[in-house]
Design goal:
The protein has about 375 residues and is an alpha/beta fold. It has 15 helices and eleven strands. The two termini are about 35 Å apart.
Length: about 375
Amino acid sequence: MNTDRADAGNDVRGQSDARVRTLADGAPIFDLSPQMRSILTIVDHIADTDATVLVRGESGVGKDLVARAVHARSTRRHGPFVRVNCAAIPSGLLESELFGHEKGAFTGAVQRKLGRFEFANQGSIYLDEIGDLSLELQAKLLHVLQDFRFSRVGGHAMITVDTRVVAATNRDLEAAMARLQFREDLYYRLNVVELRIPPLRERREEIPELTAWFLERFNLQYGRQKQLTSETVSLLNEHPWPGNVRELENTVRRMVVLADGEQEFATLVANSRRRCVPVGPVAPGEGLREIARRAAREAERTALAEVLERVHGNRLAASRILRVSYKTMLNKITEYRLTIPNGRARPALSGTAPSAVLPPPASPGAGVSPDAK
């Protein structure tokens, strides 16, 4: 077993330097897969322009890293890179955060405050989760993107900035436009250059490199000398990774800090493979559409229980993995009567009421690295 562990570690480390590019702050950009090579080629082509970039992809695929690569390879790389998470700031405060405010603009505005756009002057501003902007702020952002002139909240003087805008979202903006939740004119203003980041399951060539990079990073961070067995490496390569690079990162972190981290992951994989979703007997008069709808509900219920178990009942973490809002997660937990007895999420028995109260959510940044967005 020790030989397998050492060999597996050597195999992973031997591939870790193949095609790894790092940004100025040491964050990795992997371009082993054809998809990522194509994306980075586009990034190089637009490096000497100010074209607005829209980065799209599932949660955890690495949109942040691509956005930072756009800045790092541009002529603005010596200027500031300012990141704004549009979903994390309350809508009532986001306008002031983006564009600043004057003293006395509202209760509590005791002094002038510069906005993120001003701080990003001569550099780049990264608007993460752009799909969560309110329609009111979408209108103001559209106006700013036309000539990069705006006034602070409560002010009249026009301010001009020179910055490049990179936006990102995991939402279906086309569907949001159809529902009149996202402005079509803003969509076309942002979508000058679109970069779609594929999920990790579609670029499995990168899993060994990512694993090796995270393993080396966390060994150094925690003063460990962890090596992975060949069995674990195989499981990592085969796992579907619904949480993408962020899930892989946190999985490797657990393997480094926990003595039984590899065994825990192997158990999780084994349980996932054994789990099936029975449709149950067909009720009299039940058509194919009703059967499919019932099966889909059972599958959704089981998936919710599995993810909640994986994150030990952390509803906020589960909502991020499943790419739904926190409110939707709470509604689904109630709808399917999911309980967490002894810290594990399980579907409640049919006809029974919840027997345990879910713990409060963790803080928004808990357990999530900003490098894997």
